[in-house]
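Need tokens for this chain, all 328 residues.
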Amino acid sequence: MPETPEIPEEMPLADEAAVVAEAAPEGEMVEIAPEGEAVEIAATEEVAETAKESEPMIDIHVPQATHTWKDFWIHLGTITAGLLIAISLEQSVEKLHQLHQRHELEAALRAEGEVNKNRAEIGLSHYDDQMTWLLGLHEDIGRMLATGGNAKLAYRELHIRPRLLEGIPFTDNPVLSTSVWDTASADSRLALLPDDVANSYSLLYRGQMTILAQDRLKMQEATARQEAFEERFADKRTPTTPVLARMSAAKLEEYDALAMESFTAARDAKSQLRTVYGNNNWVRQGLYDRASAHRAQVEARTAFADDYGKMAQEIEAEDAARDKAAGK
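Here are the structure tokens for all 328 residues:
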């Protein structure tokens, strides 16, 4: 039986150069390491180096330590200066905002003052018409008393001359506006005004306009009492027009007292409205000193004085027209 050939401990390796050459890419040179060392391919080295270069690198900064007290104080001073600058900028922005709000409020108050100027002028004229009518009524009652009720006078009607209010004919007595002041008072914007400005507007709105509102109320109450008395002596077809001939002497005197009470209330309300008008012109023009306030009051009293001579002339003219219409 033939002998089995011995198997060598190691198979003979193929030509290393040939194997490696076949594995290497075409056109690249291959270096064969000495026996027993790993074989490295040049192409593999290039790929590894490219991958390593593409990895992100971490940039580490070494913290700068404060080595001396001088460095510490410089660092602290820099932080403090930055905080102070930030606070100053914030306060500056707030001051500018408050200044803008103040200018807006002053402009709104001046605009409201312009509205109230026109309304007050209409109201002053309205009171003149009421006072003229009441003086004429007082004269008629006197004539009825003097003739024992036989004067046969037609009732003197109240005539309110229409005035333009915001371009519309107006015959009522307009109420002055306080909306801007009330709103600013409610949201505390009045604190933005300088003291002299705030005090002047406070005198106008909280002082004089409050008194004016009370005088208007007194006038309304006096007028209501007079009208209630008149209705007692009116025809059912004309319930607001009294017939003087139906009144006894005592009732005529009572009626005269009511008419003069209304006259006094109208005169007082006009006087207070005149004061408001003067002070409104004072602050509307941006004048807040006492001398300017006094001058504004003098101008208002002069422009809207109680001209009883003119009222008497108007009453006489109306009497003449009434007598002519009655055939006298």
